[in-house]
UniProtKB/TrEMBL annotation:
It comes from the Bacteria. It holds the Pfam family GST_N_2. GO terms for cellular component: cytoplasm. InterPro entries: Glutathione-S-Trfase_C_sf, Glutathione_S-Trfase_N, GST_Omega/HSP26, Thioredoxin-like_sf. Residues 1-82 form the GST N-terminal domain. This is Glutathione S-transferase.
Amino acid sequence: MKLHWSPRSPYVRKVMIAAHELGMADRLQTVRTVVAMDKPVPELMVENPLSKIPTLVTEDGTILYDSVVIMEYFDSLVGGGKLIPTAGPARFIELRRHALANGFLDVLIYWRTERGRETPLASMLQTYETKLNAILPALEAEIDAIAKTPVGIAQITLAVAGDYMDFRFPDLGWRDRAPRFSAWQSTFRERPSMLATPVVDG
């Protein structure tokens, strides 16, 4: 399988961690693909008109994109139900927790982009800070319950978000503001799947 990949994309990292957790990382051929919000990649758009990564080309030529779609596809290859429960309340709780975690990543990505503008909009910076001030307490309240579930798409995404904050927002002091989430993330980041997929600015 071919995966359009970058070592600094948190969304790509989610997919790579999932592959390692499921024991199928060696089935992936990673292709370095540089993308940016303001620079569409014509070669990538042949396979993904959104010009976004991760994009996966499966062994039979099927093209999949969006990290959660790819993660669920990987899950299906090993029988299903490992990263995402197959039915019942557990499935929808996992999906909802993943939505919070992935939305958290979205906020961080857009916030960093806004910070990098020559003249950032103060209203947008305040919006992202307001969202972070709501997200961290929500995670702090739920992380003990999350930690009791099997490793799945929500835990993987939350762990990636924690590392991304350390990498791109060292000034936020988030670990002091969410000590339970921080403690959980510090433990999770030592998993082999996390250590095998370090985020680098390369």
